[in-house]
Amino acid sequence: MLPYNSSCLSTEVSDFILNCFVRSPSWQHWLSLPLSILFLVAMGANAVLLITIQLEASLHEPMYYLLGLLSLLDIVLCLTVIPKVLAIFWFDLRSISFSACFLQMFIMNNFLPMESFLHIMVMAYDRYVAICHPLRYPSIITEQFVAKAAIFILARNAISTVPIPILSSRLHYCGGNVIENCICANMSVSKLSCDDVTINRLYQFAAGWTLLGSDLILIFLSYSLILRAVLRLKAEGAMAKALSTCGSHFILILFFSTILLVFVLTHVAKKKVSPDVPVLLNVLHHVIPAALNPIVYGVRTQEIKQGIQRLLNKG
């Protein structure tokens, strides 16, 4: 006679409880203010960048369309995660419905790799063409290139990441409904299931490292070629100008890689680090890049600064 799991005879859960920083309640108090400021900066700066690109005819070029697409992704990611986290901090609204939880998981799993690929790999290729083939830049980086890159990004993420929330949503959740996280991260939710989640773990690991690994390899190749081209420049000041061209992009790649490395190390050393640290990094990863991207690109891109200034003068 087969054994049975009594918990699986109970009613399937209809909602989840986000157990956000309950071990460190003081974190909620000091984190709510900077998180609110970062959220407002991210939303405001990305909105200004989108409006500037839309209204300024001089910015209707492929490079700025890529920046506009990046801003749109940042806005969606912020709206998906941060308002719910702030609602938990301020009003203790920890409950999230079954469908809303998996919708959040779907958006995060699709848009984060999409942002990574667009922000890191496509922009790295753009900088490579600008420095290594400047005369051919207008014929390579075209509106058709942006459209094809956007379609490729959507298809790549649909094939690679859509199965993650689908696999999780098809599990049976008949036991506890408390998620030890501030967001509906895949494994934080899946481990509440009565079913075997080995396939979920293996697929997320394989998909995550395949996407990240391919991005890092392409970035390394792009910047290797850029460095080789820069070292060959003979004209006075040409090297400094070339490095300045990809400076803002390199700053953001360095930040993205650093926060990812810290996140991995905290998982490896989880017995020595508070369980709330990876949760905090996961939340910040959805808002800090979104706040930095438009500021860094806006400050270091003269055309965008001039466009914003013209809009302010018109206003």
Automatic annotation (TrEMBL):
Residues 45-297 form the G-protein coupled receptors family 1 profile domain. One of its GO terms (cellular component) is plasma membrane. Signal peptide: none annotated. SMART domains: 7TM_GPCR_Srsx. The chain crosses the membrane at residues 31-52, 64-90, 209-230, 242-265. Keywords: G-protein coupled receptor, Membrane, Olfaction, Receptor, Sensory transduction, Transducer, Transmembrane, Transmembrane helix. The keyword Ribonucleoprotein does not apply. GO terms for molecular function: G protein-coupled receptor activity; olfactory receptor activity. InterPro entries: GPCR_Rhodpsn, GPCR_Rhodpsn_7TM, Olfact_rcpt, OR51/52/56-like. It is found in: Membrane. GO terms for biological process: cellular response to lipid. It is a multi-pass membrane protein. It holds the Pfam family 7tm_4. Putative odorant or sperm cell receptor. PANTHER family: OLFACTORY RECEPTOR 56A3, OLFACTORY RECEPTOR 56B1-RELATED. This is G-protein coupled receptors family 1 profile domain-containing protein. It comes from Canis lupus familiaris (Dog). The lineage of its organism: Eukaryota, Metazoa, Chordata, Craniata, Vertebrata.
